[in-house]
Structures are given as C-alpha cells and as structure tokens.
Amino acid sequence: MPPFEILRPPDSALALSEQGAWALHPLAGGRLAGGGVELDCTLSETSLGLRLRSTEPLLFLRLRWNDRIPEGLRYLGDSCLPSRGPLEWRCLVPERPLPWYLLAYDGQHTHGVGVRTGAGALCRWYVDPFGVTLWVDVRNGAAAVRLGDRELHLADVTVRAGRVWEEPFQAARRFATVLDDVRLMPEQPVYGLRVLAEPSLTAERILEEARLLADLAENTVNRPFLLVDAICQSEAAPWMADPAALAEGIAAAGCRPGLSLWPLLSRAEEHAALAMPHEGNGPCGTGWVLDPTLPATEEHLCQLVARAVGQGWRLIRYEGTTVPLLGDPGPFSVPSPHAGRGFADGSLTTAEVLRRLHAAIREATEDRVVLASADAMGHLAAGHVHMHCLSDGLYGEPWPVAQLVGVNALGFRGFHHGALYAAGAGAADLSERLPWPIAEQWLRLLASSGTPCFVVRGQAPLDSLRQRAVRSAFAKASRQLPLAEPLDWQATTSPGRWKLGNETVSFDWYSAQYEDHS
User: Fold this and answer.
1) Is residue 197 classed as helix, strand or coil in its secondary structure?
2) Other residues' Cβ atoms within 10 Å of the Cβ of residue 120
3) Mean pLDDT, rounded, for 440-453
C-alpha cells in the first residue's frame, strides 16, 4: 500500500487570518467549515479537488492528513522559482518545505504527491513521521485575500503510486505528466545564442552575433535563435532605436530573432499611477513595478508583447513577473499571522494574479511565437508558455556556484521537460571566466540533454577550439533527442553520470577547478 493515502478530506484544517487561527470542523459531504470559512473537498478518480469560500480575509490554510509514514524514505521536492541551489534527495526533514509536489523513494517504488498546475493558491508540503501537511497560501501579495461571495478553486491534489519496476527518474517523469494535461511545447527544439544587455551594446554588434551564430549552426531545417537580453525596455538603448529593422536583420542573417521583455517594469512617468505601493529601485533602475491587477497595466503589457510580435521577434522571453512583485519568496516564505501590502484588486490570490498574467501575455502573442518565462513559478506558468527557465543561469558566476544551479536544475527538475513545458536548465558560458574543460563538459551535456540549449560568449572572439565545440553542440541541440537521465542523482547534488540516449557518459565537474590554467 502506498504510504500517502490523502485522496480524502483532511483530518484537520486550520484557517489563519490577521486576527488569529481557528479550526475548521468536518461536515457532511466532504466539507469542513468554521468562522465564516468553508472548504469543500470533492473526490474524483484521480484527484481531490479543494474549493474555498470565506467571508473573512484569509492568509493561509493548513490541511493535515494523519498517517504513519514508513521510516527510511528519501524525498525530493521542487523549487518555487528558478532554482539557485542544491535540490536533492534527502531523508525525512519535517521542517523542509516541498513546493507543489514531493517524490518519495522507498528503495523499490517512487511515489508522487502534489497539486496539479492551474492552482489558485501557492502550495507546499511538509512530511513528518505521523502524517502529511499542506500549507495553502491564499494571500493577496502580502495581504489577506478578500474573496467576497465568490468560490475559489484552491487546488487539485493528486497521488501517483510508484511501480516496483520503475527507475526513480522515469517515475518522476510519469508523475509530472499527471500534474499537467494542458502542456505546451515548441514545434522544434530551441537552441541558440544569448546576447547580454551591456551599456556598449549596439545594433551592429547584435547583427555580428547573428552572422556568427548562423555560421555555427548548420541545421538548415531548424534554425537557431539569437536571443537579445535587455535589463529594461527603454528608448535610450541604442539597439532599440528600430527593433523591427533589427529583427529583420537577424532573420536575414539566417537566425530566428528572440527578445527578452520585462513587461511589469517601467520608467515612463505615465505609469507612476500603476506602480505597486512597495516599489523601489529594481532591475529597471529608478522606476516602477506595475500592479498587474490594474486594467491599464494589463493593457500596457499586452501592447508591449503584441508590438514585439508584430516587429518580427519569434521568441519572446519575459522576466520580472515574480521577484519584483513579491520579493524572493524562497519556498513561499514562512507562514506569518501579520499581513502586509497587497495588489489593487484584493479579491485575487497571488497565484491567481500570476496565472492571469501568464495567460494575458500568451493571448497577446496570438500563438505566433515561442513563449518562454523566466523569474516565474513554473507551476503557474505551465500551460501558458512553451518554455520555462529552471535556473537562474550559469554565466558570470564562478563554477562552484554555477554547478549548484545549472547541473543541479537539469538533474533534479529536468523531468519537467515535455511534461509541463520545454525545460531550460541555463546557458553554457563560453567566456574565459570558466576553465574550458568544465565549460566544454557543461556545453556537451546541455546540448545532448534534449532540453533547450543556449550559449553565452564573452567579449573575446571564439577561438577555433570553442567554435568546433559549439558547432558540434548545435548539431545535437537542433535535433529531437531523448531526455538526459541523471544516473547518480540520489547520491549527489551535482550529477556526473548521465544516460544520454543509449550511452552512459561521465562528467568531472571538479578536477579542472584545481588545475593551473594560466
């Protein structure tokens, strides 16, 4: 029998508001209620639907299923944002938050417990020897949500029992498909070169990069993307003087044009009235983080995205939709009885606000582009984007730090690929910052992984060694490949032994750090 029998109403439920906490008591028909709060639990064949009504402003719900959890299980959870540190299989740690889902391995079976995509609240799990707890964050920003007379779809809880014949990674992939049945995927593999925003960046420099990329990518059917990053869209950026002409030039060079947007960040004075109340300096410099619940903000961001599509950009990567709004929530922060500031529309949960934002951006594209999210909660973006960035990226960081980002994200979140979205684990840094033996291995793994593959190069020209490596990488990354499987992921936070197609390949992420490369 699986250790997680939770497709039933919880054994206890607690509601938390600014005034305190109170219990919800069981009623007939799978309902729990108390103090103006009613939780409806509807059981289907594969999930437990949770719906909420409340006449009281609410911050959190805590749902508890009592059960004896077997000893010796090892657990893996997700990251709420692009991961920055070591996800890993660990023993039972009762205080460890497990955002969205958990996987549990008993030596023979890999069981999955989670909430499906499309949730109306931020959800995280905790496991202890005597049961499972689900914290449901229904806040509006940092404030209590005020639902009024509407019913909120909180989440659909689902469980997948592992099979004895399954490898843990394959069980994780199958569980991920259970979490989302509205997944989007690009028509072809996504790969290419990223051009980072710099004060000296010019349109001519971007076109030079496009010509280089076109030469390095030999696949004539699936052409690469040249993705131009920007800290904030501004008319002051020289290369943004004529974005339509720039996109046309990139396409003429033989590449597909891609653009990063920060749709909620603005310096324009006319947007001051749309700013979030807690706003200060952000990635856009002195400016404003716009409140996405205001109709004028939605109109602005839809126009921004639609304009970029109309200019000919064929990959839109958008950022700044989570951390600038909420700060870094870690694993959704620690439950607190103290409310803070919220959005202009106080009737929506944070999860609903973010889901509507992703949906509005996708609608503005008219499905004419590959749409990618970064700085986002992938569980909320799933179903609205073709590609999601699993990590904060590798470029610009020393390898001991980068190792805990890209390799770790690919190893412990890569099974999202094809189940929730195309999962990008980060870019390969070809600059002189990294020892080439390590950079080459990461490029080779990324290109062979079956997931999106982008490279970032430094100011110096690529030498012949790096050019040959990139040509080989792009030849692989441009084709449909089986998803890379980490074979030692239960023994390390930085998997070094991988199944790539029919081959087992080992990587050494360490030795070159200690060699003299002068």
Assistant:
1) coil
2) 24
3) 97
Q: Same domain for 53 and 119?
A: yes
Torsion of CA 406, 335, 358, 321, to 10 degrees: -70
**What is the rounded distance in angstroms from the CA atom of residue 289 to the CA atom of residue 259?**
20
Length of the chain: 518
* Buried/exposed code over 208-225 (b: 16+ C-beta within 10 A; e: otherwise): ebbbbbbebbebeebbbb
If you compute the radius of gyration of the chain from its CA atoms, what whole number of angstroms results?
23
Please check whether residues 162 and 195 belong to one and the same domain. Answer: no
Classify 251 in phi/psi space as left (phi over 0), alpha (psi -120 to 50) or beta.
alpha
Nearest to 152 by CA among 348, 307, 297, 319: 348
pTM greater than 0.90 (yes/no): yes
Asked if 145 contacts 58 with a C-beta cutoff of 8 angstroms, the reply is yes
CA 254 to chain centre: 30
Instruction: State the pLDDT at residue 286.
Output: 53
103 & 196 share domain: no
Q: Where are the alpha helices (DSSP H) in 119-194?
A: 168-179
Question: Is pLDDT above 60 for 172?
Answer: yes
Q: How many domains does the chain have?
A: 2
The 10 Å Cβ neighbour count of residue 90 is: 13
pLDDT tens, position by position, 395-433: 556 666 666 789 999 999 999 999 999 999 989 988 877
- Asked if residue 487 belongs to a domain, the reply is no
Backbone angles phi, psi at 462, to 5 degrees: -70, 130
CA-to-CA distance for 16 and 129, rounded, in angstroms?
24
Q: Is 77 helix (H, G, I), strand (E, B) or coil?
A: strand
Q: Is 418 left (phi over 0), alpha (psi -120 to 50) or beta?
A: left
Quick one: 307 and 447 in the same domain?
yes
